[in-house]
Amino acid sequence: GDKAFAQFLSDEIQEEKKIQKHKSLPKVSGGWELEVHGTEAKLVRKIAGEKITVTFNINNSIPPSAEEDTQEQQKPDEQEPELTSTPNFVVEVIKDDTKQTLVLDCHFPEDEIGHEGEEESDIFTIREVSFQPTGEADWKDTNYTLNTDSLDWALYDHLMDFLADRGVDNTFADELIELSTALEHQEYIKFLEDLKSFVKCQ
Q: Where does the record place the region Disordered (predicted)?
């Protein structure tokens, strides 16, 4: 059984490498520095007295509906539909002279189809906003967290503009999806390789 499993994994790894779009991770334009720790990625950018960091984790970042479709309709020689990784991401804005960090929790809505009548719909939304003490690893649940569900639209628009002014806009979000998808695929291939070595190890 293990032999067959290892053989299957070998074939699978070859297939996945064949369809791998990026041999190295795509860059995000706008002077963002990328740090990757396993499944977590962090993009950092410094502008005039501020440091902006965007953090996301590729685990559970592929929408569930995509995975179910591939199982059912796939014929042996059909190209698998492309899986896209759309992770939640957290934007932190740190101003040099304050002890507080503004934290914006963003995500990609499941239905990314723009609402009728809106010219330019944003591909990501802000879910929550809070202040956290700068430099502390653990965020406090006791800090007020603003949920955007019940938020005044004008205030929400200003928050989106605030992010856009710092380089977090639709273009950035598109590039983040591309980066995340490439990273997810890379990690998946690595996982298959580790699994193969594990299965073969007698």
A: 59-87
pLDDT in tens, 1-53: 888 999 999 999 999 999 988 888 999 999 999 999 999 999 999 998 999 99
CATH architecture label of 26-59+83-111+120-183: Roll (3.10)
Report field, pTM of the whole predicted structure over 0.90: no
What span, in angstroms and rounded, lies between the C-alpha atoms of 3 and 5? 5
How far separated are the first and last CA of the chain, in Å rounded? 13
Beta bridge partners of 54: 43, 91
Q: Indicate the angle between helix axes 2-19 and 170-200, nearest 10 degrees.
A: 150
CA distances from 198 to 11, 13, 14, 189 (A): 16, 14, 18, 14
